[in-house]
């Protein structure tokens, strides 16, 4: 997956959007399952690798949450936390826990930490809504909740999927 290209359509390497990694993992699995009834092992493996990569390179172990972006295999360069990345992270972490939780808690513990980060820092408790972007520690520097790319399908899809997955896990 590449986000940036030269004018000759050559990929600009060494750039990673952790949110796109975790969202793509979910979308690949969902698409494969809808089209074929079950995820192909290759799709499953690639989705897991994408989430594992985002956890290894873009996860904030101290505060919880995924950073915006960084180098492919280096340190994060933009440690702010964008609303959609946090919700997609919640979605994909629980999805991975549902699939691999019998083997490891590497997805469930970050899922819990992710949910706490969202509730504590991304949700505007005074006026409602979700803050667009917060600092790595959750500090709100910009109270913007709307901009050209802001929409609500990330939150809605994540919350609906999370409810369904938690109900399935509880049974």
Q: How do the helices and strands line up, and which of them pair or pack?
A:
Elements: E1 16-17, H1 18-36, H2 41-58, E2 69-70, E3 76-78, E4 81-82, H3 83-100, H4 108-122, E5 133-134, H5 153-170
Antiparallel strand pairs: 1-2, 2-3, 4-5
Helix pairs in contact: 1-2, 1-3, 3-4, 3-5
- Summed over residues and divided by their number, the pLDDT gives a mean of 94
Q: Please count the helical segments.
A: 5
Structurally, the number of domains stands at 1
- Would you tell me the structural class of the helices and strands? mainly alpha
Strand content: 5-15%
Helical residues, percent: 40-55%
**Unreliable stretches, pLDDT < 50, 5 or more residues?**
none
Rounded to the nearest angstrom, the distance between the terminal CA atoms is 36 Å
Radius of gyration: 16 Å
Count of DSSP E strands?
5
What's the story with the biggest beta sheet?
Answer: 3 strands, antiparallel
Helix and strand pattern: EHHEEEHHEH
Notes on the structure:
The protein has helices at 18-36, 41-58, 83-100, 108-122, 153-170; strands at residues 16-17, 69-70, 76-78, 81-82, 133-134. The model has no long low-confidence stretch (mean pLDDT 94). The protein has a three-stranded antiparallel sheet with strand order 1-2-3. The chain is 51% helix and 6% strand. The protein has 171 residues and is mostly helical. It has one domain (16-170): Glycosyltransferase, CATH 1.50.10.
